[in-house]
Amino acid sequence: MPVDRLAVTPLPGRVHDHWPLQDAGGPLLVRVPKLSHLGLSPRAALIYEAQAFRRAAPGGTTPRLHRILRVSPGLPWGALVVDAIDGRPPRLPDDLPAIGRALAGVHALPVPPPSRRRPLLDPADPVGYLLGVVRDQLEPVRGRLGSEARRLLEAEAEAARAAVPPARPAPRLTLADTHPGNFRVRADGRAVMVDVERPVYDSPAVDLAHASLPTSLAWDPAVTGTAGRADVVRFHTAWAAAVPRELAAAVRGVVLVYRRLVWLRTTSWACAWAARNDLAAALESPDPATAGLARRLARFVDPGMMEAARGEWTGTGAFTAEELIP
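and the corresponding structure tokens:
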């Protein structure tokens, strides 16, 4: 059925529109993409996202995929029909441990051999891949960055290159976009990751960082509350208690490396956005969504806030790997 014939109004999103659909088996959601973060063609993006849902589903903490609607003139990016999740946005800090346990369900899944991991990304050099994303985001706007922001980003990228692990961290299925706003919390307290869009085979540390960095905790206005140091530790501890001991030990060795890398990925994107757009005008926009986005990004690119975030892995107040994953 074409989406324009559904007798409901879509729930708009930045990357997808979502159409509620009632089925005999229960409520469903039609996810209609509008673009690909990975730069894929519509057909390739639809295949990628379908595989993402299929592979994450056995972990028990993501919606099930029911049907693929092909790319067509009426659906130029196609669509996926998945479970509709009845839940609320997370409340910080109380729901962070539930998010940690939800991630553990995916990270503990068996990993297929390399020949069966496609089409999902499976970088042989994941640190180099993430640094390449940072470089590609910053290079076109480097001359427009503030001097202090540029200095901090360059220092962090150099430190990340110097801290590259001697071998590739053991890859697991990671969801890669795990800020708390992409979860819903059910009435029983379980968290469900609803936006399963761009997984990659990498260390679970990428998801742990993206779920608990300051930039992630403050990203979605629907997520209420704040989280401090002890809350971030509780989140990691809940994850570690829910995965095999050997997996927790492997992640402990790279958890701070990835915290820096994921912060770089997010902050370089924010800096590039601010350099391309009139941030002051966006802050004064009459459109609440635009003004709200600008307020969040203005915090992310402020050198003072950047220095505060770096304090999590540099200086006397930095986390230790053993503190996060005992």
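(Above: one complete record from the training split.) The chain has two domains: 3-83, 96-324.
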